[in-house]
Amino acid sequence: MNQMYTPVIGLEIHVELATRSKMFCGCPADHFGKEPNIQTCPVCLGLPGALPVPNKKAIEWTILLGLALNCRINRSSKFDRKHYFYPDLPKGYQISQYDEPIASGGSLKLKIDEERTIGIERVHLEEDTGKLLHNTVNGEKVTLVDFNRSGVALVEIVTEPDIHSATEAKEFAQELQRIIRHLGISDCDMEKGSMRLEANISIAESGKRKEESELPAYKVEVKNLNSFRFLERAINYEIERQTALLKAGRKPRQETRGFVEKLNATRTQRYKETAADYRYFPEPDIPPLEFSNEFIDNIRAKLPQLPQDIAKQLENKYGIRSSYARLVAADKELTDYVLAVIDEAKKARMKTDSLVGLIINQKIDWHKVKPEQLVTEMMKTKAAQVSDDTTLEQWVKQAVADLPKVVADYKAGKKAAIGVLIGKVAALSNGSADASVVKKILEEKLSR
Amino acid sequence: MKDKLNAILLEINPKGNIGYKDNFLTRGYETTAGSNVLKGYISHYSATVVDLFEKNGFVTKAKFNCDAWAHGSSGENSDFGAVKNPWNNAYTPGGSSSGSSAAVASNYTKYATGTDTGGSIRLPAAFTNSSAIKPTYGAISRYGIVAMASSTDCPSLIAQNVKDVEVLFKIVSREDKKDANTFSSKRSLRGGQFKPGSLKIGLPKEYFIEGLDREVSEAVRQARQVLTEDGYKIENVSLPHTKYGIAVYYLIMPVEVASNLARYDGVRYGQARSFFGEEAERRIILGTFTSSAGYSAKYYQKAAKVRTLIIQDFDQVFKKVDVLLTPVSPTPPFKLGEKANDPLKMYLSDVLTVNTSLAGLPSLALSCGFTKKNLPIGMQFVGPRWSEPVLFSVGKRYQELTDWHKRKPSI
Fold this sequence. Notes:
The structure holds two protein chains of two kinds. Chain A is α+β, with helices and mostly antiparallel strands. Chain A has helices at residues 56-68, 166-183, 228-247, 293-300, 307-318, 322-329, 332-347, 352-361, 371-384, 389-402, 404-411, 418-428, 435-447; strands at 5-16, 72-73, 76-77, 80-83, 93-96, 103-111, 115-127, 131-137, 140-146, 153-159, 195-205, 220-225, 255-260, 265-271, 281-282, 289-290. Chain A has three domains: 5-300, no CATH class; 307-384, no CATH class; 389-447, Arc Repressor Mutant, subunit A, CATH 1.10.10.410. The relative contact order of chain A is 0.11. The model of chain A has no long low-confidence stretch (mean pLDDT 90). Chain B contains twelve helices and eleven strands. By secondary structure, chain B is α/β, with parallel strands linked by helices.
C-alpha cells in the first residue's frame, strides 16, 4: 500500500502592539534602538509592591484584530499568571491569558491555488519580556538584561493545525501581516521583532489515523524564524526530516528546534516530552474583563475594509489584474493612492490596469506625485510616444543589425531575448518609442 | 536601633507621628518586609498610602517589625527577632503586624499602618488593646506594599481608639489609578445616620464554638450586653460554610504567595533565595504544589469554588443584619514560643478572621475586656462591603460606653 504523509502545521505568531504606552504601565512602548533600561518603572521592572493596570487601547486593538480574523469575542475574559523563571522575566511570571482569551474560534481565508480556510484557535493579550544581551565587560563575559521591552503589549495568534505546506504557512503569515498593518495596530516588522513566528510541525501517516482529524502523537516546535523565507525553509526542512524518519519506521521526537540560517536547517534546542507546568492561575491584581455588546459593536464599527476585500474590489470593479490588486491592497496608503489615481484616470478615460502597473513597476514616488499630476503626466507621455511605423521600422532595423547575437538567440528559441532588442530600440529613440508597437514589429520581423 | 519591644526596624524621624509596617515602601529608606532576603533594599518609590499621609501633613516616624513577608500570627517569623507585647513581654503582640501594634499600644506612636491578609492587623489590635480597621478589599490602594496574597491583601490602619482609626481611613480610602482593584469610596461607602436603634447586630453561631476560650466568650458576651442596653438589636445568625474557611485560605493564599515571591529569585535583590525563612519556604512549596498541573483542579480551583460559598453566606446574612459581632481570636494573647513550632496550631489563630478576608469584607477590631492575667481581649465588627461608616459608628459608640481602650500598659 502506498503510504501518504501529510504535514500538519500550526502557527503561533506574536505581534507587538504599537500602543503608545506599555501593557500595564505608563512607560513608552516603542523600545527599538533605545539606550538600555531607560524606559522602565516599578511596574515593568517588577519591583516589590508594583501593580499592573491594563492598557485599554491594547484590549480594544486585540478585539479589533479578533474581529478582523472572524473570531468570537468573549464577553468575559481575564488575565492569568504564567509562571517560569528566566532572567528577562522580572516578576517570575508573565501576565498572559489562559482559558478565557479575548478572542477565539476565528478563521482566515487564503487564496493560493485553491481557496483554503485556516482556523484561528485564539487571539490573546500578554506582556513582552525583557531582553538578554550577551556582552563582554572588562574582559569578562556577562549577560545583561534590558527591560525596555519588558511589559510591551504582545498579542498572540494561534492557528488550528490546518496548514499543510510551507507555502500555506508563509501565505498565512503574510496575509496576517497585511491585515495587522491595515488595522494600524502594529508595524509587524520582523527585523525589529515586532512580529515573531513559531511553527508546530508534525507528519500524519495515512492509514495510521482513525479519522482525518486525528493529530499525530508528537509535534516539533520550531523557533528562530526571523523572516517568511526562514519559515518556509524551516517547514520544508522539517517535512523532509520527519518524513524520512517515519519512512525508516522511526517516530520523530517531541522537541523544540531552532532554525539555523547558516545551515539552512533546524537543530534541536531542547526535548519537550511533557508539557511545561506554568501553574496558571487568575491574575488577582486585575479585575476580570467584561465587554458589553455595545462596547464590541463600537469597535466593530471601526473595522476598516481588509486587504482581501480591497483586492477583490480592485479586480472586479476596476479591472485591475489580480497580481497588481493584491500588491496594492497589502498597503493601506498605496490603496488610498491608487483609488485616487483610478478616480482621476476615469475622468481622463485612461485604462486603469496599465496605470496601476506603472505605479507598481516603475516605482513612482507616489508619496510625492499627486494622483491628478500622475494622470496628466501619463497622458502627455502617451501623446508624445512615437508609434509611427516608418520611424520605428528604422530603429528596429538598426537594433537588429547592431545585435546579431541576440537575434540568433531569439531565433534559437530564447524568446526572452526580445526584451534586449526592445531595450535597444528604446535607447535609440531616447525612450520615445511605444514599446508595445516595437514588440509587434520585432516579432513580425524576426519570425520571417 | 533596638527598642525594648523590638518593634522598630528603622527610625526615620523621632518627631514623626505615623509609622509603617515594614512592607510599605518608603522612598529612599530600607524596606525589608521583615525578611533577610530584602535586607538592605532601598525603596525606589513610596506606597500610595505613604504618599497620601505625607500629603495630608503626617510625618513618617518609623518602620515597624513584622513577620517576614507578613506570614504569621505572632510576629515570631520576623528575621529580625520577635516583637514583645507591651502588656506582658513574655507574650506575642499578635502578627503579622506585630511591630505596629506594639508601637501603638506602648504609645511610641498614635498612628500606624499594617496589612491584613487573613487577620494580620486584627489579631495584633486585639492582643494589644488597640483599634484597627481591615477595610473593604479595594478601599485602600495596595500600590507600593510588598504583596503577600494579592486577592486578600488589605492595607490596614491601627490606632489607640476607633475615632483615630476613622480619621486615618478617611485620608487613605480612595481610588488609585495605580491599583486596578481600588474603587472610589465616595461613591461606594454606605451613607446615612446609624443610630443604635436602627441597627441590627448579628451573632454568627459558628464563631462561638467549643474551644473558644471562656474569658474571651465572656468578654464578648458583656460587650453584647452593653450594646443591647444601648438599643442595638441583637440577633443570632448562621454562616454555615465558616468551618471551611481555614482550609480554603491555606490553599488559595500560598498559591498567591508562591507567585508573589517568585521575583525574589536572587538576581536582583541582593540576597539569595536561601535567605527565605522556614515559613516562607513552607508556603512557597505548598502553593507551588496546589497550583501544579493535575493538582490545581483538586485544590486551588476547588478552594476558589468554596470561597464563593463563603461569600454567599455573608451575602445572605447581611440581608438580615447590618453588622456581625464576633471574637477576633479564639484565645487571649499567647506566649512567645507557645505555637512557634506548631504551624497548624499557629494557622488556627486565624480561624475567626480568614473568612472575612476571603470575602473582602471590612472588619473593625477593638478590645472588649481583659483576662485575669491583665491581657487584652478583642472583638470585631464585620459588615458588608463599603460599610466602614457603620462599623465606625458602632465602634465609636461602644468606646463612648466603655473605657477598655483607655487602659495603658505599664512599661
